[in-house]
């Protein structure tokens, strides 16, 4: 007689019921970290694309990176457009960089491997270089290994599809064409196509008018490109472009420019700072890290436009063209840098090296401070330098005042709290030496007496105030 074998799993279920499935991790963040780690590994050898928990299917590595590029571009305020088709296969994404006037293909976009415009040498040559130097092949097709900028609006879609095409092939998630959002691209594309057609006709005729027509087409193209373009770019702060309208002498910030999300606390309280708030409200859309300009925005001057972009006090010298030239160099009759007043020459120090002044208080731990700064005798302002340490505590008479409110706001945005005080991560410009001293000490103070140089001379003694 054969003895029956006990199945311990069945017996357990009879007594206690089927065990519930559990999550292997304490949080969704831990799960996502593991998932991204697995995705980032070479996965050609993995037979099953399904993880052994929660029934989650792995995303192919190339698609994961491609989607990451799209998310990054979207967070930076870019409007992403796509070309997708099954036969022949392609799946590409791009965005228009309004500052540089170029279209950027995102890496790991799949493009058609072959082409059907062998009679167009310029397209054939350009696409061949793209395939050789900036693409790779896998089982799914050919994909780009890096972001690619394309200056000609006529060839962008043609590179992806391997045939003659135009910008209307690029559509966003809502199915709207790129030319719907950037009509200037359609005008440039039409001009370029007209130029190519004219070149072909004149080449067949052998006409001497070809050079004249080329000149006209080039002139129209440059004119349509919105005049002489200037730029302000600071990593993590802004990426903007603009131009001067010579007739009205007003300066325009171009559509698509990314301007600073933050604003200097001293500048924000000025008249220009209040005008910047109106500019952000009427002409900009808030993105994750920047404000994106939604239309060409007219400013009263190039200096005002620079302030709006940077979120702090600036002037027209911040704008540079693609050759590094300033507005003053391009328009010498319209712009000039003001000369320093001759009265400055009597100062007991070089103009380019203003003396440093300090406030150091170490007696009381709560009122500890150690700050340095420089005085602008022309603008009558005082600049507190980065890495200065502000007092942790403030006096009862200073608390809840307008100056205290500004100080708290600056500390929240621009300081790191340490055991002995608030350490400044950036410079702070104050309207007077006394305002700067109060800012450091957290109480009412006479800055002409509190600020002292290396020789222990007060600011009043140095400037004979």
Bin the helical content: 25-40%
Outline type = flat
Query: Helices and strands: which structural class?
Result: alpha+beta
- How many strand segments? 21
Largest sheet: 4 strands, antiparallel
CA(first)-CA(last) distance: 116 Å
Output mean pLDDT.
Answer: 80
The side-by-side strand order for the widest beta sheet comes to 1-2-3-7
Percent strand equals 15-25%
This entry's quaternary arrangement is: single chain
Note poorly predicted spans: 44-48, 338-352
Radius of gyration: 31 Å
Number of helices, where a helix is a run of at least 4 consecutive DSSP H or I residues: 16
Overview of the structural elements:
Helices cover 34% and strands 19% of the residues. It has helices at residues 8-16, 28-40, 61-75, 121-133, 156-161, 178-181, 183-205, 210-224, 265-268, 271-283, 302-310, 327-330, 402-414, 433-441, 447-450, 459-463; strands at residues 80-85, 90-97, 102-105, 110-111, 135-137, 142-144, 148-150, 229-234, 238-245, 250-253, 258-260, 284-286, 290-293, 297-299, 357-361, 369-376, 381-384, 389-390, 415-417, 422-424, 428-430. The strands form six sheets. It has a four-stranded antiparallel β-sheet. α7 runs antiparallel to α8 (210-224).
């Amino acid at each position: 007689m054969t003895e029956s074998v006990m199945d311990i799993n069945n017996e357990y279920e009879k007594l206690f019921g089927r065990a519930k499935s559990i999550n292997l991790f304490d949080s969704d963040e831990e799960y996502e970290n593991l998932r991204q780690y697995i995705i980032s590994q070479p996965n050609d050898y993995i037979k099953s694309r399904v993880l052994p928990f929660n029934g989650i299917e792995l995303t192919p590595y190339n698609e994961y990176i491609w989607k990451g590029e799209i998310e990054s571009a979207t967070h930076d305020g870019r409007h992403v457009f796509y070309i997708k088709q099954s036969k022949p296969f392609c799946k590409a994404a791009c965005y228009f960089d309004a500052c540089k006037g170029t279209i950027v293909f995102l890496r790991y976009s799949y493009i058609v491997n072959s082409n059907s415009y062998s009679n167009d040498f310029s397209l054939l040559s350009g696409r061949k270089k793209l395939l050789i130097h900036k693409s790779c092949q896998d089982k799914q097709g050919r994909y780009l290994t890096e972001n690619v900028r394309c200056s000609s609006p006529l060839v962008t879609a043609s590179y992806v599809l391997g045939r003659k095409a135009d910008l209307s092939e690029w559509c966003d998630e809502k199915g709207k064409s790129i030319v719907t959002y950037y009509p200037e691209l359609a005008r440039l594309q039409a001009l370029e196509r007209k130029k190519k057609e004219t070149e072909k006709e004149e080449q067949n005729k052998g006409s001497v008018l070809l050079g004249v027509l080329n000149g006209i087409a080039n002139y129209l193209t440059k004119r349509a490109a919105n005049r002489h373009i200037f730029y302000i770019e600071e990593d993590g702060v802004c990426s903007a472009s603009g131009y001067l309208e010579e007739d009205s002498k007003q300066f325009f910030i171009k559509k698509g420019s990314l301007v600073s999300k933050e604003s200097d606390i001293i500048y924000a309280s000025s008249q220009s700072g209040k005008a910047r708030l109106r500019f952000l409200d009427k002409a900009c859309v808030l993105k994750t890290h920047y404000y994106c300009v939604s239309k060409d925005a007219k400013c009263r001057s190039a200096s005002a436009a620079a302030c709006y972009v940077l979120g702090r006090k600036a002037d027209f010298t911040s704008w540079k063209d693609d050759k590094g030239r300033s507005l003053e160099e391009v328009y010498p009759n319209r712009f000039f840098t003001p000369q320093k007043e001759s009265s400055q020459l009597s100062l007991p120090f070089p103009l380019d090296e203003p003396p440093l002044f300090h406030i150091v208080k170490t007696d009381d731990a709560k009122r500890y401070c150690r700050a340095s700064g420089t005085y602008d005798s022309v603008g009558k302002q005082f600049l507190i330098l980065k890495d200065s340490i502000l007092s942790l505590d403030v006096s009862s008479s200073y608390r809840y005042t307008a100056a205290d409110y500004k100080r708290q706001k600056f500390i929240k945005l621009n300081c790191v709290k340490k055991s002995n005080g608030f350490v400044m991560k950036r410079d702070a410009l104050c309207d007077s030496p006394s305002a700067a001293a109060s800012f450091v000490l957290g109480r009412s103070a006479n800055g002409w007496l509190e600020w002292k140089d290396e020789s222990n001379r007060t600011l009043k003694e140095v400037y004979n105030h």
